[in-house]
Design brief:
Number of helices of chain A: 13
Strand content of chain A: under 5%
Strand order of the largest sheet of chain B: 1-2
Distance between the termini of chain B: 23 Å
Strand content of chain B: under 5%
Oligomer: heterodimer
Order of helices and strands of chain B: HHHHEEHHHHHHHHHH
Structural class of chain B: mainly alpha
Shape of chain A: globular
Largest sheet of chain B: 2 strands, antiparallel
Distance between the termini of chain A: 38 Å
Number of strands of chain A: 0
Largest sheet of chain A: none
Helix content of chain A: over 70%
Chain lengths: ~300, ~325
């Protein structure tokens, strides 16, 4: 047999990686499917992603097209969710609003993983003084409620969409750090971590390759539920006029704009707020279901390998 | 009996509480320092600015001094109860807050009460009958409950009860005990429902864990009636973590009480602080943050006290 060429070796390595990704996805799907709450949540979240991507195809009207001849109209065949105070189609705006909801989810998850997970890993792995100082800093941040801390941040840096999303993303970092830290504290006592240390692996390698993969379940569970809370917080901030501003087609901003016409017609405020509740419900169900399966073992033992 | 060890533990917690409040003031102060624009501009951005006002704010906050001197002098004022002056409202912040805090904290109190009444019994039932129809029904209700933001349920409640059925007041705060109660009941119920749903989840999980403990098996083996086991032995132990977490939620509760109170158009802290954020009236936001931090720390010390009383092992075993 001849030696495999360089090209073949690279190719097989890539296939191996592909199959690892596929296997991971398949395993994730099995975990989700084993719990009915997680399944429903996953379907809602997937639907949100599909709607966000296909928004221009799905929306019957352009989200910003005004029609001053037909303002605050009740639901009809032409406008299934009615029209708002400048005659824009509420359904189309809600469809485009999914993009903002998912942007919030992405910002929160990114900040939580980049800052929250690394702080937690470092604190839990090094313990001692590093841990002590990180934890005290987080204690301080946790004693200001998320929404209020976000308000302080937007007061300082000004009210706009980015400040609102980043502020909400930052306020969820402490919880994630605490969770990862406590998980790292117990995992670092495991024999395989001691073995890795004994082999002289670098600290970052031990943290990233040995501790992190084993802290994934609590990270996934907390991350999913935090997205739900963050959606509520951003929507609340926007509804109060302190977050995403009208005429942006985000659900909170739509509710804020419709507030003044609530006595004329409730539809422009009812449908966006229902959309918020459904999106939050999706992430909550997914998070709760994953918690049951990943942290409590779930009803189907074979899932947890 | 309170042992010297318990006293020592509580003193430690108290010291930590003071540290937290101090650190919150420092954090918010540093935020003010790094904000774009000079601190004088941020402090003044609430209204029309005259050169005279600029001078007075520079003098009042010692803005010509280095930042640590400013911070020290400002902290001294705050410790003496002087929370600064609101330029958008043209009044001292302490006075503005004194006029408004009561309604917000009444909503906080009532919703905490309603949350407890709603969540503990249902949590015990669901946890003790894990997997039953009742458990599933309650769990789904709780998930839906935490998924509806309070401003959404508030808006819907106003639409249904005030505008369509005309059975509830839609705004104002009411006067007298009964008047106030009818005004704050629905907002508190909505908020209490949301917090109650979170507490229910903890109580249910706690019951599930406790009922699998060995001492429960011992009780069963001794032939104690199941009702007694659940209420006397399991529920009492399951309630402890709910107590701790409800202490951590108090800050969240205060902020969301401000939100419902704003939605229902009551003149509490909510409207004051929300308008202050809009107007970048920093002294009011600063004061609101400090007050929330103080209430948070104090209520957590109270929870610690209750906890030490309920479970003496905490004080003996140390803080972790």
């Amino acid at each position: 047999m001849s030696q495999p060429t360089e090209r073949e070796r690279v190719g097989s390595k890539r296939r191996l990686q592909e199959s690892r990704v596929l296997r991971g996805l398949f395993r994730g799907w099995r975990v989700i499917r084993s719990n009915s709450m997680a399944t429903v949540g996953f379907l809602i979240v997937s639907a949100l992603v599909v709607v966000a991507i296909l928004a221009p195809v799905l929306a019957p009207h352009p989200p910003d097209a005004q029609n001053l001849q037909n303002t605050l109209a009740p639901p009809s065949a032409e406008h299934p969710f009615g029209t708002d105070n400048t005659g824009r189609d509420v359904l189309s705006r809600i469809i485009f609003g999914t993009r903002y909801a998912l942007a919030i989810a992405i910002v929160v998850i990114t900040l939580e993983t980049l800052i929250g997970v690394s702080l937690g890993l470092v604190a839990g792995y090094y313990r001692g003084k590093v841990d002590e100082s990180v934890m005290r800093l987080l204690d301080v941040l946790v004693s200001i409620p998320p929404l209020l801390l976000a308000m302080v941040i937007v007061t300082t840096f000004g009210i706009n969409i980015w400040n609102a999303m980043i502020a909400i993303g930052i306020v969820y970092v402490p919880m994630m750090s605490r969770t990862v830290r406590s998980s790292a504290l117990s995992i670092r006592e495991e024999t395989y971590v001691q073995a890795a240390e004994g082999l002289g692996y670098s600290d970052s390698r031990v943290m990233l390759k040995h501790i992190l993969p084993n802290s994934v379940p609590p990270i996934v569970v907390l991350g999913t539920t935090d997205v739900a809370y963050a959606l509520i917080d951003v929507a609340t901030l926007s509804y109060l006029g302190l977050g995403i501003q009208p005429p942006t087609a985000s659900w909170g901003a739509m509710a804020n704009a419709a507030q003044g016409y609530i006595l004329v017609t409730p539809w422009p405020i009812v449908f966006p707020t229902l959309a918020i509740a459904i999106a939050v419900l999706g992430f909550n169900l997914l998070g709760m279901g994953l918690r049951e399966v990943l942290l409590y073992g779930g009803d189907h033992e074979e899932v947890v390998e | 009996m309170i042992s010297s060890r318990t006293v020592q533990y509580l003193l430690k917690r108290l010291g930590f509480g003071v540290f937290i409040v101090w650190a919150v003031t420092l954090l918010v102060f540093v935020l003010l320092q790094i904000s774009p624009g000079s601190p004088a501009d941020v402090l003044l951005s609430g209204g029309v600015v005259t050169e005279e006002m600029r001078q007075s704010v520079i003098e009042q906050y010692n803005l010509n001094e280095p930042w640590y001197v400013q911070y020290f002098l400002w902290l001294k004022d705050v410790a003496a109860g002087d929370l600064g002056y609101s330029f958008s409202q043209q009044r001292p912040v302490a006075g503005l807050i004194a006029d408004r805090w009561a309604i917000t904290f009444q909503i906080v109190g009532l919703s905490m009460l309603l949350a407890t009444l709603l969540s503990i019994p249902t949590g015990i039932i669901a946890g003790a009958n894990h997997g039953s129809v009742v458990d599933r029904l309650l769990t789904v209700t709780a998930i839906v409950g935490v998924s509806i933001p309070v401003f959404v349920s508030g808006v819907l409640a106003i639409l249904i009860f005030s505008f369509h059925l005309n059975v509830l007041p839609s705004g104002g705060a009411g006067s007298g005990f009964v008047g106030r109660l009818t005004h704050i009941f629905v907002p508190s119920l909505l908020l209490g429902g949301m917090v109650g749903a979170l507490m229910f989840r903890m109580m249910r999980a706690g019951m599930r864990d406790v009922l699998e403990k060995d001492y429960i098996e011992t009780c069963t083996a001794m032939g104690l009636p199941r009702r007694q086991i659940i209420l006397k032995y399991a529920a009492k132990n399951a309630i402890a973590p709910v107590l701790t977490v409800s202490g951590l939620w108090i800050g969240f509760l205060i902020v969301y009480a401000m939100v419902v109170e704003f939605v229902f158009g009551m003149g509490g802290l909510g409207r004051l602080i929300i308008h202050a954020v809009e107007a970048q009236d920093f002294p009011i936001v600063l004061a609101g943050t400090i007050i929330t931090a103080v209430v948070f720390v104090v209520s957590n010390i109270v929870v610690d006290l209750l906890y030490t009383w309920a479970d003496p092992r905490v004080a003996v075993g140390g803080s972790e």
